[in-house]
Amino acid sequence: MDINESFAKAEQILAPWTGVATHPAPDRMDVVIPAKSLVEAVTALVEAKWGYLSAITGLDHPGSTEPASEALRWQRLTEEIEAPSDEESREGTLEALYHFCEGAAILTLRVRVRYTSSALPTICNIQPAATLYEREIMELFGVTIVGTPNSERLLLSDDWPEGVYPLRKSFTSLKELDVVKGKETK
Amino acid sequence: MNEQVNAPKKFIVPIGPQHPALKEPGHFEFTVDGEIVTGASVRLGYVHRGIEKGCEQRSWIQDIYLLERICGICSHSHATAFVLGVEKLAKVTVPPRAQAIRTLFLELERIHSHFLWLGVAAHEGGFDTLFMYSWRDRETVMDILENLSGNRVNYSANVLGGVKYDVDEKQADEIRKGIDFLEERAHYYLNVVTTDETFLGRTRHIGLMSLEQAVTLDAIGPTARASGLARDVRVDAPYAAYVDFPVKLVTDDRCDLVGRFVVRINELFESYRLIREILDHLPAGDLTTKCPRRIPEGETISRVEAPRGELFYFLKSNGSDKPERVKVRTPSLCNWASVINLAVGHNLADIPMILAGIDPCFSCNDRSVTIRNPGGSQVWSWEELRRYGIEHYK
Amino acid sequence: MSTIGAMLGDIVQSLFTRPATELYPFVRNIDPERLRGKLVWNPEKCTGCQLCVKDCPSDAIELIVVDKVNKKFVMRYHADRCTFCAQCVESCRLKCIDMSNEEWELAALTKNPFEVYYGREEDVQNVLARFAQESVEATHRE
Amino acid sequence: MNIAINPLIALLVFPGGIFLLGWGLFYEFLDRKLVARFQNRVGPRWFQPLADWVKLLAKEEIIPDGVNAGLFLALPVVALAGALTAALYVPMAGWMPSSSFRGDLVVTLYLLSMMTLCIGLAGANTMDRFSLVGATRALTQLFSYEAPFLLALLGPALAAGSWQISDVNAYAHNNLWMILYQPIGFLVAIVGLMGKLELPPFDAPEAETEIVSGALTEYSGRGLALFKIGRNVELVVGLSLVAAFYLGGLSNPLEFILKTLGLLLLTAGLQSLFARLRIDQTVGLWWRIGAILALVQLLAILAGQAIRGLF
Fold first, then answer.
1. What is the CATH number assigned to the segment(s) B51-330?
2. How far apart are CA B179 and CA B163, in angstroms?
3. Among the four A95, B2, B366, D236, which has the fewest Cβ within 10 Å?
4. What residue segments make up the domains of chain A, in order of their start?
5. Are the C-beta atoms of B107 and B277 separated by less than 8 Å?
6. To the nearest whole percent, how much of chain A has pLDDT over 70?
């Protein structure tokens, strides 16, 4: 199928939930959607048999390093994150990218959640193959996937400290973590 | 009378993390009733290395070599997926000769990987002779790769903006000669795996995965193509030199292990054809073009058809000389679900072959993901899966 | 179409042909021209740009400055860290670095042979003497 | 050659004891070498099996938790003893069997089965899951090949009109090679021997890619060494038996060497030619094809004899 045709179809399917749709490259379409409508959007895609889930990428946006303009842009795009107070605007967000592929076309659903309210609904009921990807971002980014079939400690070793997410930017190494903790306890 | 008291106890056969069937660490637990498998679960993560995090702390150039070491068998696919992505971000146009040589390496790597797989799969089925012969013949392509790049694995052929190694006429002739020999051998092996009755006894109707199941389970690569699912990034979204040298899609509708053998061997023929074509029409020109050390800000997705299936890279740059995020989704990861689901209902003896059928690569998986499945709640029974499939496609 | 023992021909044939096994340490093949073995460095052309050090994915190269003005450098090469990717060869604009296709059997019983110093003889002596001096001073301080 | 041997020597040096152990190791080497050559490999050097064996003997023997220690230690000894005893009734190296009585064929066959029984018991004795599955498979296989193998060896015995191995040997020596007019029986016998020795493609009981080492997974050191050498001895005994019955008897050492080596070449070829059979396929093969073929062969012999009786 032609790329443009695919995208036109996807646009139509996702219209009810689309915050904003962009084409960062000819073969890509990024659709920003609010976290609460993720399941509906994925269901619509799967029911329309639009491609297959290729991967879920996690991204970490630490509040302090992200330019303010970027954070503002996100507020406008999703309305999910309400106008932050000064303190809140420093809080980081986590982004999950759901990549769907059909032929050459890659459709990315982008959802964002805050560090403190990092809940995302599971899509395993619609796409059973998503379970591995969901576990991956739970483990590495600390996104809480609500209702995923298995939410145990998955990726990291059993003695990995609770609440430490290695792919977040704030994580550098376990050794340093101990040093910081040591200081805190002193 | 006693039957209820002696309710059948679960008899679990553990396979791995250290087991002769698995040369790489993974842990499987198969619940068996006699010889029949009634449940399966998997736990990976024994070779988790944190490469994605490591990438964020190294420069773009250093990352090529780190990512190349995700997997020893499809190393060039990883490096190519990465450099293609970075070049897209940097808006660098790579000379056509470099793209063609990259593709040449990709196809040689596919041949090496498929021959390796043929041997491993035969070994799992207790056919050591086929194992030895296919690995012996694989040496031909390994030698070609060594002559081209100086290394048998981890060729390090890619640099940002091109390739390191050129192919001259003398080497091209050597490759052609090797390919001719391998083509003859591939015909022979195709004949063996499709006609040898003892081997067919181990592969025919084993590990059946219908097209519907393949779609539901998100299978990719040769595993999916053996179920008739036409999914191949080289065809769907041509990259590198596949635009100029198009690939014919190879599928099979046998859906079982025989199909997986046939698809992989037929893919070899396609690779031979492609390699000859590339060698005959190698574009002239430079090998490299200048690529900046600091990559402009942006995000990109790069997909490459590795020997095992679609390899997915997501790259994000923040404008510095180090990537902001490198996400790797390896093909084996997509195919695990199929193994776990296909195992149920088979003989214990068939499990190694079904496992081998998807050509699993543990190093690929464990780069960042572990699966643990103790309760079996995630394991779908045959019936559940079918119900799901029926409901899904109502 | 099905047969039993489809590989019979090959099996009988191999009984009368030489085994494919290469008896490596006793019988040697010709090393491929492009084989990437131990790193070799030519100090004459080096300008000390440090690009090779920067690009090395495994920190295997150190460039020690002896005399910056007169372009005198010594390279400390850690063969045990090297992954033989040849990125340094690619990065060097002056083609000072190359990888030997003869010296590749680098296994050793001690760690010493893995730390290699390259450079002009007097520079290397100079650097080694400096290191010796430093280590003596360090022990004195303690 | 009909030179009587002192029973003690027969038991300890020749044809039992040391000779048989050495010959067994030599044949293991030949088997491995041949399979390697069939697979276009170099294969082991001549002392490799001996080195392996000595190494195993020198190693620590671990008795796992939860086993009956006495049984665990006794089984390998019994298995080896069974195989060595069987050698006494077989025309080893072309000499007359050192011990012989009417009906010793049946005894020999059961002595040869001791090995599999011991392996099955050894597997069932431990708590290891691989061992249990391996033991089940070993015994399942025993029940499938035993009957056809017995029937296949009965053919020559019926033709010779005696159940005494030395008589059959002599009969075979004086008549046309029995492989010529009992080809099916020969095939069943040689394949049955491979099943008995758990050689590929009948190595499901110790399929390494599924159940590691099968019933012997928990064995180490001396116990494993004894099981291994016992299997080698059985290989020699089995080959001699088949050679004596089907290949025109064994009357001198040269004949013995040539004929058993020929058989070894055949088994090595068969080993490298096929993919491993699943246990259900093995059972199916033996009962559906092997047993019926052997029966047909037997009926043909009986019919032949009846017809000959008429004239």
1. 1.10.645.10
2. 22
3. B2
4. 3-185
5. no
6. 74
- For chain B, list the strands marked E by DSSP: 11-15, 27-33, 36-43, 158-159, 162-163, 298-306, 309-317, 323-329
CATH dotted code for A3-185: 3.30.460.80
* DSSP-derived secondary structure for D43-79: ---TTHHHHHHHHHHHSPPP--TTS-HHHHHHHHHHH
Helix, strand, or coil (residue A153): coil
Which pTM value belongs to this model? Answer: 0.86
- Residue B355 above 70 pLDDT? yes
Q: Would you state the structure tokens that stand for residue C45, as one six-digit string?
A: 């052309």
C135: in domain: yes
Chains A and D touch (3+ CB pairs under 8 A): no
Residue among C4, C11, C20 whose CB faces D272 most closely? C11
CA pair distance A17, B34, nearest whole angstrom: 52
B287 in contact with chain C, both atoms CB, cutoff 8 A: no
How far apart CA A128 and CA A109 sit, in angstroms, is 17
Q: What is the pLDDT of residue A183?
A: 46
Q: Which residues contact A136 (CB under 8 A, 6 or more apart)?
A: A56, A58, A154, A155, B368, B369
CB contacts of C23 in chain D (<8 Å) are 42
Whether residue D140 contacts residue D279, with contact meaning beta carbons closer than 8 Å, is answered with yes
ipTM of the complex as predicted: 0.84
Backbone dihedral region of B359: left (phi > 0), alpha (psi from -120 to 50 degrees) or beta? left
For residue C77, the surrounding DSSP H or E stretch is strand C72-78
Give the pLDDT score at B103.
92
* Rounded CA separation D46/D33 (Å): 9
List Cβ neighbours of B87 (8 Å cut-off, separation of 6 or more).
B93, B94, B160, B161, B291
- Which residue is it, tokens 């040496």? B139
How many angstroms separate the CA atoms of D311 and B244, rounded?
Answer: 84
Domain-embedded: residue C92: yes
Which of D80, A132, C110 shows the shortest CA–CA distance to B333?
Answer: A132
- The pair phi, psi for residue D213, each rounded to 5°, is -125, 15
- Give buried/exposed letters for A128-163 (b at 16+ CB in 10 A, else e): bbbbbbbbbbbbbbbbebeebbbeeebbbeeeeeee
- Residue spans of alpha helices (H) in chain A: 3-14, 38-47, 68-78, 86-89, 130-141, 174-185
Q: Count Cβ–Cβ pairs < 8 Å, chain C vs chain D.
A: 30
Residues 97-136 of C with CB under 8 A from B: 99, 101
**Whether C and D touch (3+ CB pairs < 8 Å), yes or no:** yes
Interchain proximity D273–C14, CB inside 8 Å:
no
Residue the block writes with tokens 């012989």: D100
User: A43 touching B, CB under 8 A?
Assistant: no
Q: Hey, what's the torsion of the CAs at D124, D127, D129, D135, to 10 degrees?
A: -10
Is it the case that residue B1 has pLDDT exceeding 70? no
Q: Is the pLDDT of residue B170 over 80?
A: yes
Would the pLDDT of B367 be above 60?
no
Give the closest of D212, D274, D279 to B349, CB-based: D279
Under 8 Å CB-to-CB from B133, ≥6 apart: which residues?
A: B189, C7, C10, D39, D40
Tell me what the pLDDT averaged over chain A comes to.
76
In this structure, which amino acid lies at residue A107?
A: L
Mean pLDDT computed over every residue of chain D: 82
Q: Which of D41, D43, D273 sits opposite C5 (nearest CB)?
A: D273
How many domains is chain C built from? Answer: 1
- The residue to which tokens 């393949």 are assigned: B214
pLDDT digits (tens, 9 = 90+) for D81-106: 888 888 888 877 667 777 777 878 88
H or E element that contains D232? helix D221-246
- For residue C129, what are the domain limits? 34-102+112-141
CA distance A60 to A96: 9
Chain B nearest-CA distance from A120, in A, is: 19
